[in-house]
Amino acid sequence: MKLARREKILVGVAGGLAALFLVSQLLVFPFLDRVDGLRGGVRAKEAALREMLLLRDEYRASRQGYLEVERLLEKRGQGFTLFSFLEEAADAAAIKSNIKYMKPSESSGGGLRREALVEMKLEKVALSQLVTFLRGVESPQNVVTVRRITIQESKSQQEYLDIILQVATFE
């Protein structure tokens, strides 16, 4: 079968387009899809790396805080007890006689150290005495914090306060 020049050109163009179509479908598009997938994977890995770096920095800060607390606890000494610390702070604030009760307990935390808790009720305390007492109790150098505090006006004398507070430290 003999084709005319125009038909030969048309068949050549059609064959070239078919070859171009096959090359693009079998080689180019899969390659480009693979490159896009790899770029997405790189972006995901970069995001994971950024997250890990943030977690590393957070861990380092936590570890530094933990080491600082450990250093303060060692500096505090072996004879430290929260109960006697609170009695001394109450004595310094001139409210030792206002202590209604002190209930020591231990937290059931799962950390490396036990947490000692004392619930304390104070009655008929002036605001200035309470402030002095709290300044003495909130002691970063002794790692003592007020966990919870409830303050009410005294029922018998309106100018005084009744306080229930829970104080915590590590042993």
What would your notes on this structure say?
- There is one protein chain.
- This protein is of the alpha+beta class and 171 residues long.
- It has two domains: 1-76; 82-170, Alpha-Beta Plaits.
- It contains three helices and four strands; from the N terminus they run ααββαββ.
- The protein has helices at residues 5-76, 82-92, 127-137, and strands at 99-106, 115-125, 144-153, 161-170.
- It has a four-stranded antiparallel β-sheet with strand order 1-2-4-3.
- Strand 3 and strand 4 (161-170) form a beta hairpin.
- Helix 2 runs antiparallel to helix 3 (127-137).
- The chain is rod-shaped and about 125 Å long.
Task: Put the structure in a nutshell.
With 171 residues, the chain is α+β, with helices and mostly antiparallel strands. The chain has helices at residues 5-76, 82-92, 127-137, and strands spanning 99-106, 115-125, 144-153, 161-170. Helices cover 55% and strands 23% of the residues.
Give the topology:
Layout: H1 5-76, H2 82-92, E1 99-106, E2 115-125, H3 127-137, E3 144-153, E4 161-170
Antiparallel strand pairs: 1-2, 2-4, 3-4
In angstroms, what separates the terminal alpha carbons? 102 Å
**What is the count of β-strands?**
4
Q: CATH homologous superfamily of the largest domain - what is it?
A: Ribosomal protein S6/Translation elongation factor EF1B
Overall spatial form: rod-shaped
Estimated share of beta-strand residues = 15-25%
CATH topology of the largest domain: Alpha-Beta Plaits
The CATH class name of the largest domain reads Alpha Beta
